[in-house]
Amino acid sequence: MTGQEFKILFKQDKAYLTPEKSLTFGQVGLPEIAKSFKAPAFWTIRVLNYREAEQKLFCEVLSYQVGDTDFPFNQKTLADKLKAIKTVTFRSIDTGGLLRTLASTTPISFLPTKETPVFRQEVRPETIETITRQPIRKVITETFFIPLKNVQFKLGGVSFEKKFKDYNKTIELNISNYDIREEFDAVKNYFANVLNTRKIQVTAIIEITDNEITSVIAKSPEIDKIDKQLIDNVKFEFVKATKKKVTVEVDKNLFTMEEYFDTFGEKNFKSNTFYNDEKELFEDLLKITNTKHYKHLRFLSSKHSHQTMKLRFIHKPFSFIFLIAGDRNYHLIWETLDTEEATYVWHIDNNLQALKTALRKIEDIINIIKVQGKTAYINSNDDPFRRIYHDYSELVDGFVKWKGELESVLT
Questions:
Q1: Pairwise CA distance, residues 256 & 227, whole Å
Q2: Which stretches of the chain drop beneath a pLDDT of 50?
Q3: pTM exceeding the 0.70 threshold for the entire prediction
Q4: Is the peptide bond before 107 cis (omega within 30 degrees of 0)?
Q5: Which among 119, 110, 121, 107 has a CA at the least distance from the CA of 38?
């Protein structure tokens, strides 16, 4: 198979050398930034080495394209051998080709950057001298600052447009960083806070041949600083900001994680930018807050019935509604994060309709408490609920005492 040209087809998170058998991105050596192709894409490849015993192909990429495709005749005739392939490696993968075919949903064709050819015009063989025209090359090198708000975060880096005095067209500059995702664009002001700068420094090197751009390289020390640790710091800053945000005028008091970020997060922010589920958000809230009820919340979280009800968040006072399923009843438990409030426990019938009704009722209860205070609710209350008080003295283990009282109530 050495020397043969094939196509490798990508659909979502799978790669195909034959229609019947797929390979993982790990088997074809794609970097970790490649998670899934937004649309079918294919690369034209040439086999440089075929190791049958190792079931391995070593290839070079000839072109990168977006769109569906059929395999060429020679590839179909070798389908049986290709089905046995377990590993595909490449001499190199062009970053632009990879990112464009990953992210594009419209047909494109992209050839890897190659050396700029030298154009020669030769006269008849009997002519003694050969006339050669060298291309006109120039290089623009410039260091400048650009506001971070004018930079677009995208998959695998950032981009922006700029005009240079030695070239009459706007040039798109891309700065690579595989830790960056396009969802971060909605919270880039928090990246500015953590980086402690509103502007980034950029050094651009642009090569122009015969008035056509042949190479663009852009680097930024601030963009290079963005790694997993810095992104975690941005995430913490974002969560702190939503927690401190002045309460907006909404009728709701109980929020799922998605509803919480829709209400108190930035415009266009998606909850899965930082968190896969509410358990991850809960863990971070415990890390970034000097909570008075750390052990209590840990215990309640371990007992919460995530499969029945998503954890509910209350913005003010910042608190949670947990669900603990008993043998005969559901128990809804209200516990605050960092205020000295008692733990409220409501008992309801063990069915989903009763649970939905109870959650709506707790919305109303919290409104009453916010407007009239706890005493008004307690004095006028006919609900089957219990309060468990926290002991903050140093003479006893307040958590052990609280846990014993709670377990006696739940039984």
A1: 29
A2: 115-130
A3: no
A4: no
A5: 107
